[in-house]
Amino acid sequence: MASVPDKLKHLIHDLNDDFTGKTIVLSVPSILGSIIYAALTAWAAAISRSLWLGFMTAFYVVTVLMSISVLGSAGISAVYHGKRFTRANNYKRFCIRMIIFDIFFGLTILYFHFHGIHKDYPGYTIYLSALYVFIKVYFAVVNMYRAHKTKSYTTIALRQINAIKALVSLLILQNALLSRFGNPNTDFTRNFNSVSGAFAFLFILLMSTYGLIVVMKERT
Description:
Elements: H1 4-17, H2 19-48, H3 51-79, H4 87-115, H5 125-150, H6 153-181, H7 187-219
Helix pairs in contact: 2-3, 2-5, 2-6, 3-4, 3-6, 4-7, 5-6, 6-7
């Protein structure tokens, strides 16, 4: 009979070979980390009375809820095999939610383009945020390609959410850095933030639209 350490070794070995399984398992600590980051950003928004950080925190919380929803839908699909809860239908609903999310995200970026963003993280929290964002962006880029190779809708959806989280957190950090170390009142700063926001908006739109087209073709 295998000992507990041996069982753990086999489990870790299986997860290393199963990218989909590893993605699902690691989603739990990822969600916890996202909740901590959202709480930090919400605290910074309250301390600095920043509407920008408040909106970005709200968007980040929505991505956390989307992750939980994807995991819940995957669990339902594994238990209940009805047509409504197939992985293709789950992914279709997810893509539609991403498009709705992106519309509100784009309107927010447009609003702050005309009203300006002049808020920063208080104290040394900007450096903690920078470390988190660096790690988030790195793993989002590395894992997106691997996710699409699995052909698993659940894996792709979870990795796409991580990419959105990386973009949102990167926008928050960029604005904070420009506000801390540059002049937030210049046209360059405002336009730079707006261009970055527009890029994030288009990236999410293309990602969700492409996913919707792919899943619709598969169903026909």
